[in-house]
């Protein structure tokens, strides 16, 4: 993949992550502030809802150049679910630790943790494991 295309895919992934992340963040705040659910649980609820949007965007738009939509959706969903579970665990625990240690509002520490998890965990696993191009090539050319 050319450097220009890699940058474009990275940018699309960030738009997808931001869109799913905004939905996730709004759901977290609504659950915490209106329904009085502890923010660590609200992070999980928002994470699941945001993940549904993010998966759809990644499968049909972000990684479509990799022909991600040609792969079996069940396989991708299973892999994506593992990534989401890890992401939610990192975000919940990271937000709790930062909120406790830094004595900052959970809404601020959540954004800090989201940036770290999104770039260092989610993007890497989605690009190289969940939606990787080689899976399509292996499916089309089994040896």
TrEMBL record:
Subcellular location: Membrane
Domain named GtrA/DPMS transmembrane: residues: 20-131
Coiled-coil parts of chain: none
One Gene Ontology CC term in the entry: plasma membrane
Superkingdom assignment: Bacteria
Entry membrane topology: Multi-pass membrane protein
Primary localisation category: membrane
PANTHER family recorded: PROPHAGE BACTOPRENOL-LINKED GLUCOSE TRANSLOCASE HOMOLOG (PTHR38459)
Protein name: Putative flippase GtrA (Transmembrane translocase of bactoprenol-linked glucose)
């Amino acid at each position: 993949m050319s450097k220009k295309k890699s940058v474009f895919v990275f940018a699309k992934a960030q738009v997808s992550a931001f869109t799913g992340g905004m939905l996730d963040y709004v759901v977290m705040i609504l659950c915490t502030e209106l329904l009085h659910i502890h923010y660590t649980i609200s992070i999980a609820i928002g994470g699941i809802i945001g993940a549904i949007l993010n998966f759809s965007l990644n499968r049909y738009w972000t990684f479509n150049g990799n022909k991600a939509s040609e792969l079996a959706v069940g396989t991708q969903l299973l892999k994506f679910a593992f990534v989401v579970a890890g992401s939610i665990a990192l975000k919940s625990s990271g937000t709790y630790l930062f909120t406790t240690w830094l004595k900052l509002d959970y809404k601020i520490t959540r954004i800090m943790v989201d940036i770290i998890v999104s770039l260092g965990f989610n993007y890497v696993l989605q690009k190289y494991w969940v939606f990787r191009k080689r899976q399509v090539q292996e499916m089309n050319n089994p040896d």
